[in-house]
Amino acid sequence: MKITQDENELLMRLVEENKIPDYDPEKHVIVSQFAKKLGVSGNHARYILDNRVKKGKLAKEKVRMDNGHTAYGYFNISQKEE
């Protein structure tokens, strides 16, 4: 299948708009890290983090880990624009 220049530009724009950001240990906290540090289950850690998201204290986004898998990275709202 031959891709025209217009299709290529569209494809590249769509990829950029939908790209999953890489995990940034300076910005993101993931559930497994939080659970381990807190000494609780992953479900309980997720519950705590999601409640903070609901209260507007944190935000979350899907991030790509070093191994290629995705996870939700939680971060301070003020860091979203960075």
Describe the structure.
It is a single chain. The chain is α+β, with helices and mostly antiparallel strands and about 80 residues long. It has one domain (about 20-80): Arc Repressor Mutant, subunit A. It has helices at about 5-15, 30-40, 40-55, and strands spanning about 30, 60-65, 70-75. Strands 1-3-2 form a 3-stranded antiparallel β-sheet. Helix 2 (about 30-40) packs across helix 3 (about 40-55).
Query: Order of strands side by side in the largest beta sheet?
Result: 1-3-2
Low-confidence residue ranges: none
Structural Rg: 17 Å
Number of helices: 3
> Which CATH architecture is right?
Orthogonal Bundle
Q: What is the count of structural domains?
A: 1
Comma- or semicolon-separated keywords:
82 residues; Arc Repressor Mutant, subunit A; alpha+beta
Summed up:
The protein has 82 residues and is of the alpha+beta class. 41% of the residues lie in helices and 20% in strands.
Write the layout of secondary structure elements.
Layout: H1 5-17, E1 29-30, H2 31-38, H3 42-54, E2 58-64, E3 70-76
Antiparallel strand pairs: 1-3, 2-3
Helix pairs in contact: 2-3
